[in-house]
Each structure stands twice: as structure tokens, then as C-alpha cells.
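Two proteins follow. First one:
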Amino acid sequence: MILRLLLITCAVFLAVTANAHGGDEKASTRSTSNDQVQNRGAGKDDWWDKLPRPEWSAFERIDQDQDWFEVYRIADGIFAIYEPGQFEEVISFLVIGDDRALLFDTGLGIGDMKRVVEQLTDLDIVVLNSHTHYDHIGGNHQFETIWARDTDYTLGRAAGSPPDAVAEFLKDGWVWKQLPEAFDPKDFRSRPFTISRFVDEGDVIDLGGRKLEILATPGHAPDAICLLDRDNRILLTGDSFYLAPLYTHLEGSDFLDYAKTADRLAGLADDIDAALTSHNVPVVAPHYMTALGEAFAAIEDGTADDYVMTDGFREYRFDGFSIIVDARGPAYDCSATKHEIELLICDNPALSALDWRLFKIHALARQMMQLDSGLVFSVAVKYFEEEQLDWIESRNQCSKAPDRIACTRASYERRIARLQARYFLVDGGDPVTFLCNGNEEIVATFVPTETPTIRLERDDIIVVGWRVPAASGAKYMGDLGVTFWTRGDEATVEWPKGTRFNCRVR
């Protein structure tokens, strides 16, 4: 019954209408633009005239006593709680098990979310947010049991916000429905809430007869998650995907993280029959996960060329959705360079994002280097900056590579990983001491950077290497031509000037 209903919906409503969470209907096969995002609050497009969305007619509407909400039975044990009266058209999902229920987001906080939920189930409720943007946590304060990820971003949002932080979202052009009588627009805010338990990637929530696996999916927000119901082949995407412009350019958003999330969701397309999304329409077909991965990959490799520029942002358009990226370019001045690799970076949002990430990590590393170097800081910083210039020269050699984008991306990833490992910007766990050639000690710290790295200390020399393919074990190559190849408790080390060590964990 669950799968049948979902699949019918996906088949009937494959053509998506206007996207109120930042989109506008077009006559062509491209269904999104950013017009509404740019004009929101101005009331220029009368987006409410496009409602009701036909997709909702596939589902049974459930009676409840608040006009602000619409509630639909999406599948057995799953209800969509829809707020079509405000521009976000946010959707919260109530998933009911045999023993308890999970509320995935609590909406805007305009209507009484708790009252709605109590009309749908008398089970104990666990609240879990797809992320902590204002339109998904508005009703959190009404509930006693709230699970969340342990991130600085989440904890900051749990503290609440002043009214002026979200007041604009009730201005003209944002709301068309009559606001509830009990709601005071002057007091509209994200209210503080108390986290009962921290959860994270891989945790499984057992509701009794239904299990939901937590997937960490950062990008749209640092604390973003999806929920995977493997048994029923359903994915709840939150804001990681919906049929409208996807935001990678907001404060706290990260294009590079979003690209990895997109690739991960694409890998789940064959494992699900439907995805439940948190804006506009409740159900989309699994092929959209594949399309999402392909879209981000196309932006990264420079083959996505259908985009429009608006106010310093690029909106890349795909069938049924779009992706908005920051078009400010890299951390350096693009007008002051003529080098082809640097110009390539200027034109590629993914490489520009990598350049900004390196810029921030380089600054942190410099601070750590200053703390370590003490009185010899002037000497250390000279070496530090020369090393960066050497890396830039090496990066620019990618102009000779068959795939210049892939080469440049790999160069950035290795440089970032090296700085993170060398200056302890990523926790590497306990160091491992190897006894080599009978009396030499080499201390190795394996650092889980995005490109896995190793930090090697021998006497007063520190080198960093990054992992490379190996037939067996783990092999690293790095500074000064050092090679470190470990298999179990043994390792072979090639140090500069042809020195070879056979080592064993002490």
C-alpha cells in the first residue's frame, strides 16, 4: 500500500508546477527560476495564485481544526503537515510507529503544531529537525523530547532568535492566508528549545515496527540530515532536495559539502521508491536523487552551462530544480590575473569554493604556526609563506594536465589536507610510535582529513603525506619525497636522500 501510493503520485505528477520555495513556472521544460527569491516580499508575482498544487490531490486529506495547516496521509503511518499560507510552503512529516512517533520538523511556528500532532496520534513524540533553519524549528519549543545533532550551528539555533531576525518573512508578499487569531505577528521568532539527546550519522531510531536511519547530509546547512526508511524504501530529504532552487549560498551553507551530499543521495536512488521533500510537494521520484548528483557533478567539472546571473549569484537550471551558487569567485582578485589556471578557478564555482576554504584554513594554520614557533616566528612565517607560493606554482602546473579541473581540485584537496594535518586543525587520534632499523623512532599520526593524511615526526623533522592507491595496506607519499607504507603492525619508510627504514609498532 505504501509503495503503491507513492509510485502513483510520482507517475501522475512528474511535471512539476511553480516552485514557491524560490521558483517560477516557465513555458519551457525548465520549471524553475529565481524570480521569486529575488522579489519575495515585494508581492510582484502573486505566487499564491498558483495554489493549490495539483500534486496534493493524490493524497487523502485529513481533517484537523486549524485552517493554517493542511494534513495529508502520504502513506501508512506517514502524515505530511503542510503550511501553504506562507511563501516557504514548508512541510513537516509525522512518522508513526507502534511504540512512538517521530516529528520530522515543526514548521514555521505560526500555527499550533502540537495541537495538530495530538489529533493524529496519542503516542509519545520525538522531534528531530532536518536542519535548524527558522522554517523547520518554529514549533520545537512546544515539545519535551527533541533530538538533535551536536554541532555549534545547532546549539546556536536552539538558543532562539530575536523577532527582527525572522520578521521579514511575514511582510507583504510572503503570507496570503489569514494568520491564526492566537498568533501575534509582532512576537514572531524562533523560540529557544531544549535538546534532550544528541544523535548523529548512522544512528537508527526504532519507532516500533519502523526504523529510521540518520544520514548526515551537510551543505544546505551544517547540521542537515536525511532519514532513510530502508524497509519501506523511503527517504526523507529535508531541504537537501526539493523541487525548487536549492540553496548553497546562504550563511552556513557550503557548496563543497552539498556536492558530497548530492553524490551520496544519488547512490541511494536504487534503494528507494520515493523521496519525501520538505517544501512545496511531498513526494518525488527516486530519479531526482540521481539527477541531483549529476547536477552537482556538472557544476564541479564545468559542463553545466545553463545558468542565469542574479545579484552576484549563479542559478544553474536543471529539469525540475535549480542550484544557486555564490558567484563571487575565489579569494584572490580575478581581474588582476591572466594565468589560465587562476582564470579557470575564477569561472568554476567548485574551485572557487575550494580556494575560499583554503584561504580560511591557511589563516588558521598561520595562527597555529605562530603559537608553535614562538621567538622564531619571523623565520617560520617566511618559510610558511614561501611554501604557499611554491604550492601555487605547483597548482598552476595543472595547465599542462589532460583534465585541468580534476588536477586543480586534487591540488587544493592535498594542500588543505596537509595544512590540517601539519597544524593539528583536525583531530588525528593517538600517535603511533614505530621502531625502525633497530633504534630509530618515527611517530605517525593518522589524520582523517578529506584526503587522508599522515603526520610523521622523526627527531625534530615533521613531514606530512597523503594517501595514495596501494595493492595492500595503506600507502602515503608526501613532503621531501617521503613514502610511508604500512601493513598491519609493520611499515616501510623511504626518507629523503635514499634512507630506507623497516619499522614495527613499538
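Second one, unrelated to the first:
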Amino acid sequence: MAKQLETDVVVVAAGLSGLAAAISAAENGASVIALEKASNTGGAANMGMGPCAAGSPVQKASMIEVTPGELFRRHMFYTHYQVDPRLVRAYYFKSGDTIQWLMDMGVKFNSVRPAFRARERTRAYADGEYTWHVVQPEDGSEPGPRAATTMTKRMTERAQALGVEFMFETPGKELITNDEGAVTGVKAVDKNGEEIDITAKAVIVATGGFGANAKMIKDYIGLDWGKNLYSFAVPGMDGDGFNMCHKVGAGHTPVTMEMMYQLPDNMNHFYVEGGFRQPCYWCDRNGERFMPEDDIFNTTFVGNAINHLPGKVGFSIFDSKMLKHWKKDGPDIVSHVHPKDLYQGFEEQFARDEDTYLDGDGNHVIAKADTLEELAEKIGIDPDGLVKNVEEYNAMCAEGWDSLFEKEREFMMPLENGPFYACRQYVGAYGTLGGVLINQRMEVMTDEYKTIPGLYCVGTDACTIYGDSYNYSIPGNTMGFCLNSGRIAGENAAALSMESASDDEWD
């Protein structure tokens, strides 16, 4: 017989959205049990740097005037109104207060940043907003990947102080419903295999999508993980909550991914990957350029572009003169993620991996050669096509005008001085977005837009605010939505539990 537990609110998973939901519910008077498949909290957020917000005290202190209403309009224009405006509005108008909420827990923010600054001619429609609240690591170091672990740590401490009961290595397996279809609890299994039935007045699903489930990615998105798609694939993000919600009648929404571009196993090739993210010469496997290279700072744009290339692979190429320039003057496009001394470690890492870093067909993922023909053969580009197109590009560089894509003149550097360097660029993704239909209160709805009583869904399981593309011009958006959807769900779940308790008293 299954072990029986009872609480007001069950949160399924303790990543960023689950932590926010658990804290919010507990702050509003509910008893909370948080189930977590892993042995710690934070999930994918532990790989991030910080959330999006508008109208926060950090922005105001820096004299950054970005209002929730402005972001709402910009976001809706970006999506062409393919998404729920009430849901988007609820998120942005909560976001500034959420930063103060985090600061009250002891979270410190290093700065508010845009992910990029667009070129002057594209600024009106492509510029990055100052919305990315980058977390200050507790050791005082410069923020980088995983900076947000400090935030999830503070949130975990706050949840524990409020009495939230964490049950680690105990994944939720199935939602419990009554005869009317309302959700009344969760079935779980602990690390010893013991079955647990938890009765609750509300359940909040926050399992983070299915970015580590290759079959679901293939079925829902059509990409082959490990072949034409690479992602962070955070262990445990297998679609548990996604499937649990749909099993009890949750409505379906389109599923997208946070497209970007990357190398396989990119964290082990950090300098190499960063070194090639420059406005050099970018082409497809036929040697043809496919975008103005001064747009490569926008990872969503590039990921989308590569996804539509033959074989879903692109190539970035530069020559020894460009490398000398970057080593002396620094990168042309500075990343918030990669270190400023990028090219001090580039050649050493390149030499380490050049001969062994191969794809499944035996092509070099990175390559170096004295001629373009030899380079093309190594990396899997048509040699004749590459030579022909590079000659045309070099002629444009000599003229000082990109007649094909109007690339900014300052980046028009010819490929002419060997050795030449190349890197295969694949479609990448941070994870999946959406699938479960919700309203602005984070209540799960059926395909007929009727709410399922007692059931809420938050974070990337329900993040259907992007249409077909992640809005990279408003950075920090995924973490921002996770935090704020969690807070909103926690408040509403607590209110529902209090209402249920009051009803019980009258029965």
C-alpha cells in the first residue's frame, strides 16, 4: 500500500519555477510539499545567469527606463500576436516586483544588461533591451554561466525557512483526480521505490519541459538530438509533467525550442566555440553565405537560419589575419558568456581537439588548413563552391560593399591569408517551450478552454509566450517567465487551498 501524505499544495519539481511557486504558496499561508527528481534544487536555472524584468529597483537605480507596458507591446509585436496577451501582460507586470522579492531573500544583482546591441541600421527592430538581471555570484567573481546558482540557493533557503518540505529523488509520476475531473493530488515514488500518494488542494507542475527526451523532441519538433540538434539536455527533463497534465485532459499548445547554435559538447570546447562566434565568413555546406554575419550576435536568428540550411549545419571560417587581429584587439563581438581573454586560450584548445573532434560521419568539427580546398575537404564543404563564393566575397571586401547582404563595412575582411580555420555550427537549444495550455492565472485548461480545478502549470512546460521564436531582444525571458509564472501560480494555489479549507469548515 502506498504511503499517504496530505498537504495544501504539491509542487512537482523544484527548479526555478517550482521554487518560486513553493515559496509563493508558503508565503500566502499554504503548507507545501515540493517533489524533486534530482538530489538538489534549481534544475536548468543553475546553468543560467539571471531573469528578465521591467520596472525593477535595479533598473531604476541605473536610470534604465523600461516599463512593463513597453515590454508587453514590444513582445506582442515580436510574436505577431500569436500568443495570449493576458498571459504575457501578467508576466511582465509582475516582473519588477519579483526582483525586489528576490533581493529581500538576499539575492544580489551584478548589473542589468542587454544580450547584445544591434547595429545602427537594424536597431529600431532588433535592438536588445536592458532587461537581463545578471546575478552576482556569492564569491564576488564576474558573472558567467551558472551565476544563477546563487539565486536558486537563496530561494531554497527561503523555502526551507517557510517550512516547505522537499522530497528529493522523489519524482511525481501521476496526477490524482476525483470523479469530477478535479486534480486532488500526486502519486510519487521515492529513491527506494516506495510509492507515495499525496493528497492536496492544488498541484503545480513545474518539470521543465522535455529537452533531454530525444524521442519527444523528434515527435513534437522533428529534430534528431545528437545528429542535427544539440542542447544542454539537463538530466531529468524528460517530459514528466507535460505528459502528466495531458493525461488528465490538459489542452495542447504548439511546442517550440529556444533555438541557438553550438558545437556538440560545447562546454568542453568553450574557447573554440566562442572564438568562432565572430562576423567572419559564414556559409552552408555548398560554400554559400546564408546571412549578414554582423547579425550572428543574435543566437536565435542564427539558430533559426541554420535550422533551414541543407543538412541543418553551417560553417564559420576565418584566416590567420583575422585571428591575429582578434588576439591583438579582442573580439569584434563581445559575448557576456565567453571570457574577455577568449583568444588567449583559443589556439591551445584548438590544437588539443583538432584531430579528434569529429562528427558521426567522420568530418572534422573544427579544422585548420593552408588552403581553402583542403579546409573544405576536412570539414565537409564543397571545395569548388567554397572557393567560388569566397572569391566573390573577397571582391566585395575590396570594393568595401557587401552587395549580397549589406554586411557592415567594418566587418568586411577578406579570406586570403592561410592558414584558414573553420568550425561546423549546429542547431542548438536551451530546452523546450510550451505544450500545456494555461491562462494568465497559470491554471491548466482543456482544449475547450475550461479550467481543470486544482491544477496549475508553470515554467517551460507552459511557456507559450514566444510564438515560433524565442525573443532574444528581451533577454532573460525564460528565467523571467519561470520565476513569475511560479509566483503567480503559488499565490493562486494558496488562495484555492484557503478557499477549500473554508468550505470544509462549513460542510
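SUMMARY FIELD: The chain has two domains: 3-196+234-255+434-495, 259-428. The radius of gyration is 24 Å.
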